[in-house]
Amino acid sequence: MTIPYYYTRNLVMVYRLAAGWLFWPILPLISLKWFLKLRHYEGARWRYLGLFGRALRDGLLRRTKVSHERVKAWASEN
């Protein structure tokens, strides 16, 4: 379940780098696209939402120093 965190965080940083100033107008659309993946996580939707929110925040803040142990702990929270 840690994959959605890394996927989202890293893509936020890549899109930000690639899109330049266009990143901010595109961000709501990209976020919605990723948010809609929630339908694939039946039974673990709250965990996915928690990871998604943290990944989006960390990607926007360019935080890459979050330990894998911490991400695993977030992924196992109910």
What oligomeric state best describes the polypeptide chains here? single chain
Major sheet attributes: none
Helix content estimate: over 70%
Q: Please tally the β strands and state the result.
A: 0
Strand coverage percent: under 5%
Classification by helices and strands: mainly alpha
* Count of helical regions: 4
* Shape field: flat
Radius of gyration: 12 Å
Low-confidence stretches: none
- Which H/E pattern describes the elements? HHHH
Mean pLDDT across residues: 89
If you had to describe this structure to a student in words, what would you say it looks like?
With 78 residues, the protein is mostly helical. It has four helices and no strands. It has one domain (3-76). The chain has helices spanning 3-19, 23-35, 45-60, 68-76. The longest helix has 17 residues, at 3-19. The radius of gyration is 12 Å and the shape is flat. The chain starts with a helix and ends with a helix. The mean pLDDT is 89.
Secondary structure layout plus pairing:
Layout (H helix, E strand, L loop, with lengths): L2 H17 L3 H13 L9 H16 L7 H9 L2
Helix pairs in contact: 1-2, 1-3, 3-4
Concise overview:
With 78 residues, the chain is an all-alpha fold. The chain has helices at residues 3-19, 23-35, 45-60, 68-76.
List keywords for this structure.
mainly alpha, 4 helices, 71% helix, flat
